[in-house]
Amino acid sequence: MKIIICGAYAIGTHLARLLSRNQEEITVIDSDQERLAKIGFDYDLLTLQGSPTSVKTLKEANTAAADLFIAVTPDENTNIVCCIMAHALGAKKTVAKVGDAEYAEEEIKAFYKNLGVDRIIYPEVLAARDINSGLKMSWVRRRWDVHDGALVMLGIKLRENCEILNQPLKNLCGPNDPYHVVAIKRSGETIIPGGNDELKCFDLAYFMTTRPFIPYMRKIVGKENYADVKNVMVMGGGATAVRAIQTMPEYLNVKLFEIDNDRCEVLNQVLGEKTLVINGDARDISLLMDEGIRNTQAFVALTGNAETNILACLTAKRLGVRKTVAVVENMDYASMAESLDIGTIINKKAIAASRIYQLMLDADVMNVTFLMQANADVGEFVAKEGARITLKPVKDLGLPKGMTIGGLVRNGEGMLVSGNTKINPGDIVVVFCHDVNMKQIEKMF
């Protein structure tokens, strides 16, 4: 597969890392030789210095033969224009990253699709979705719903009061048990567990279960004392905050802190009565106390500064807030935030890269996401008639090391998978993998 990436910035670099694992033919275009030198040194790909809106540059990159053309420069106009040009030159599929909410409207997306921009990625929408998913349950680090909630993945930090520590998983996750452990993050290492592995205190464990058993999961992991989220404080009034608040459930009471007075006036108009906008610094402990942080279950830090967001979340935790969410765009800071026990880490660049990564896979791969904290991929694959995955029970399939099947959806009903499960054509199968080529997995389906 020939893939062209315009923009050797954070998203382009993260995409290159994801795609280079699949040994695709990748060309990165950028006007800055230093950025290209760095990305070319780190990954197995070609680089081309030039403007992505230059016909000469696009022809030199052999855009006419591109299966996927991805524009992720910081300038949305550049991204739109070079995708239109790439389409005209013969690229099969084009993707453009944008930073304006207008592009997320269905009518606008349809307009640009007619011009040759097949897919528009708006990271703020994707980040807002992950933020709200993280607020659904205060005791969960990450929640991921499969097929409208037929299956649910829960990422949970385990503490001393967890009932299922230090026991082989083969004794815990049998065919009749209502959950499976599909991935474990421990001391910086990701484990796709087998039957002899055990859960340890302070593990970040990823469970697959069904919606009726969520209360049971909460009990066995020792999180029943966590209060449900009703009151939320948000720091920073940028585009991500606006999108997240606009799509938050109605039952949440939201207070938004923004330092800039002019921005506060805009936010009051945009958000209306749904949100109390406060002109102030959410790092001010006395202000937080006055505004009721002791009665707040979730604190969401969405400024453009990673250090500010991390420190604000640490302060909120010290003041008794159980659930904290921080936007951290620097990958190095993301791992640091995890070690400091910041709750949910949101990285818009990684989220956007994961969504684009999905586009290079087959149409029957319904959803792929990158679990940044676990350094693992999780995806929904549809099993085709005659596919290898349908020929034998799971235990006899010879799954690659680093891959596990978390569950499946059959006729709209979520089911967990055991070694004796036989996957049928048409089943939606949830796959977890770490250091495994996703294209290799795709071939099994």
TrEMBL record:
Keywords: Ion transport, NAD, Potassium, Potassium transport, Transport. Residues 1-121, 229-346 form the RCK N-terminal domain. InterPro entries: K_uptake_TrkA, NAD(P)-bd_dom_sf, RCK_C, RCK_C_sf, RCK_N, Trk_Ktr_HKT_K-transport. Residues 141-223, 366-445 form the RCK C-terminal domain. It holds the Pfam family TrkA_N. It comes from the Bacteria. This is Trk system potassium uptake protein TrkA. It comes from Hallella faecis. The gene is trkA.
